[in-house]
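Input chain follows. Return structure tokens only.
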Amino acid sequence: MRITLGLVLIIDWLIRLNSLTVHYTNEGVIPTSLLFDYQWKPGFYSLFLVSDSIAWCYFLFGVAILFSFFFTIGYFTRFSTLIVWILLCSVHVRQPFVLQGGDELLRITLFWCLFLPVAKKYSVDAIHSNKEEQGSAVFSAAGFGFMLLVFSVYFFSALLKTSAEWQSDGTAIYYALSLDQMVLPIGKWLLQFPALCKILTHFVFWTELIAPLLLVKPFMNPLFRTVGILLIVLMHIGIGSTLFVGLFFLVGISTAIGLLPSQAVNRIISRIPSFIKRNSGLLFFARILPSFNSMRNLMEKVLHSIRNFYTETILTFALVFVICVCIIWNLGNIKGTGLTITGPFKRMVYFLRIDQNWGMFSPGVFKDDGWFILEGSAKDKK
């Protein structure tokens, strides 16, 4: 999961870099005055607001790409995760008008990665420390929080799809594939088969509703969880091949990989050719990148002195509190629940950027399509 997410992060930063001036500077479509007046929330922060200089933006993007690469190969992974998460939160605050569900999922996944052992295997850190741990199961509050995140993306998305075109008519996919701004060639071809579009509509709706429940099924969990993940991956492949949804389908597949049960992971690894499992690429980076063993040993001593029953308990309770806040936030997105987060807790949500809304194509698919045309006339300046 770490490697695939890291590759998606690098692609994401490179895509954003292509529109740096237009989206992330005062010379673009959203100067800071407009941002503060209409899109600023209590608790927001952004390093991109420290300076108006384009050079500062290029510097931040360079740092983000570098540490995204370090995150991918697992080099000083926890620190790299922190840097990338802060910069991702910053860039999302600076330009909120180009965000979608994939951006939220990527950002919140990075938050949980801060507390997950994502570098325990297949990483430069594991090679430098000679401590590549065996086993692939993780049980912790952070692990539960990450599972709840993936669960929420699909389950609450299904609950928010309340229109007849999703639940009874089965026309949602047909309408979605009729959007010229989003449809891809395969999607246009599928429009010839309305009956198939109806079947696909019900497949997407029921997959979003049932697959998350399979992830948390208490008995025969490895089997049902594997089936649930396969359904989610299949759905994302279908969406990504028919509609232009940015990197959302890649983020969705990457996060699903992280929830594969140990039995499935071990079976997959046993079938991987030995020359791939030698980690030759990681060994190369482990040789050329300094290990900073003295710094690592010092950090381990500091962490060992801090880490005890009390600090671990406090951290666990803090993460459980964050989980509860996320549950209430998602339930509050459903009409009629009356649940909401207010006061300092809302500020905390926006500061951590765990605010989320999984209402993709909800409650129904929008019907307006095309492009805006602004007519103007040239006038001579006096």
